[in-house]
Amino acid sequence: MESANFPLFTIILMTLNIQKIRADFPILNREVKPGVQLVYLDSTATSQKPLAVIDAMDSYYRNSNANIHRGVHTLAEEATKLYEDAREKIAKFINAPSARQIIYTRNTTESINLIAYTWARANLKAGDLVILTEMEHHSNLVPWHILQAERGIELEFIPVTDNGLLDLDVYKTLLSRSPRLVSFTHMSNVLGTINPAREMIVMAHAVGAITILDAAQSIPHLKVDVQNLGADFVAFSAHKMCGPTGIGALYGRLELLEAMPPFLGGGDMIKEVKLRSFRTNSLPYKFEAGTPAIAEAIGFGAAVDYLNSIGMDNIAEHEHEITEYALERLEEIPGLKLFGPSADKKGGVAAFTLEGIHPHDVAQILDKDGIAVRAGHHCAQPLHEKFGIPATSRASFYLYSTKNEVDMLIQGIYKVKELFA
Ligand code: 7TS
pTM to 2 decimals? Predict the structure, then answer.
């Protein structure tokens, strides 16, 4: 048994020192009100930030603040280097062939809109089919609604089954209608479902469609390799992966990015401007008009360093353990209905309803004990409609979440039930 020692070695590697990790996140120590410790279970909305990220941004403003790409003075050179080094780190993190293929945007929403306003408007015409899914976040629905109204493109949706998976048989049928674009989420922000992205992309490419992967929820939690997945475009946000708000990224295949018209016009995205014309800059600057979010890009790079220092496999393993435990405990609660597949098919998200109690009331009462969960449609209104409910309460987990926090959630839910009994 040559591999007999391997599992033990792996287990040792995978056991995260959670208390050490928690100490990296100052906010986790805070009391939400006197004597009430924060239990943060809303990382799907935005993650908390480690000191390494806060310090990197603080240090930039204290020591190196200057505009980038424009000056030859020391600070401008320092700022430019920090900004571009972060891009390199992000490219490596998702195994992009080159940092030129990483476009800084404000967030996942802007990344998807960038494709809709450039590639899609240059390539799609009336009658062209775009395939989406019923589990999309509004940011991967509304840009296509807008284009449908403007261009008359057609939209079709891969249905979600009762147990929260995509119906791939219907996907196959839809592919037979020669779509131009397939755009879908890697991981649902409500059901937690991890979709078989590689398989779905291979299937789309077989009929000549371009693919967009909304990786807002996957890149923070799993090892994502854009070359292995084969996606044409991948969109994600820094703030969900320990980085700051106000910055995200779009990865694109080089030939596509080269051929696409620019997005916003202005400084930095040009090579040359005349009174009546301009020439676009090379990649990635062609898509980065104006002074960008410099401190945030540096913070994004520091977040990638931080995640690498913990290890994405370790993070995924820890979250899986917490999610499995949470689902098990939640299922025991009478009148609680969980949405989404079993723990082996999903990330760290548990969306639920409690019979006879509005999800907002659940969240509000939990907040009295410092437990932060989100309630509402989580920007996935059509998905909630599909399940015949207006809203869910949602607890979500990240590398700093503990079983003790899950226990507090369970206790809190029993309290809610008692109050409404
Ligand atoms: N796609 C998915 C799958 C998401 O979960 C989100 C944000 C977005 C796109 C948009 O990201 P943004 O950074 O551009 O806002 N999801 C959530 C959520 O579940 N609760 O708050 C934001």
Answer: 0.96
Residue 58: C-alpha distances to residues 50, 54, 55, 105 (Å): 13, 6, 5, 21
C-alpha span between 26 and 30 (Å, rounded): 7
Percent of the chain with pLDDT over 70: 96
- Domains in the chain: ranges and CATH: 18-49+311-419 (3.90.1150.10), 53-308 (3.40.640.10)
- Catalytic choice (66, 379, 389, 410): 379
- Please spell the DSSP secondary structure of 199-214, one letter per residue: HHHHHHHHTT-EEEEE
Report how far residue 421's alpha carbon sits from residue 412's, in angstroms, rounded to the nearest whole number: 14
Instruction: State in Å: Cα 70 to ligand 1 middle.
Output: 33
Token pair recorded at residue 290: 């104006």
Q: 3-class DSSP state for residue 73? A: coil
Range with the poorest average pLDDT among 59-73, 129-143, 318-332: 59-73
Which 8-state DSSP code applies to residue 311?
-
Is any atom of ligand 1 closer than 6 Å to the C-beta of 195? no
Strand partners, 59: none
To the query of whether residue 242 is one of the catalytic residues in this protein, the response is: no
Of the candidates 230, 191, 240, the one whose C-alpha atom is nearest the C-alpha of residue 392 is 191
- What is the whole-number distance in angstroms between the Cα of residue 234 and the centre of ligand 1? 14
With 50 as the cut, is the pLDDT of residue 8 above it?
no
Q: How far is the CA of 192 from the centre of ligand 1 (A)?
A: 12
Tokens 């009331």 correspond to 361
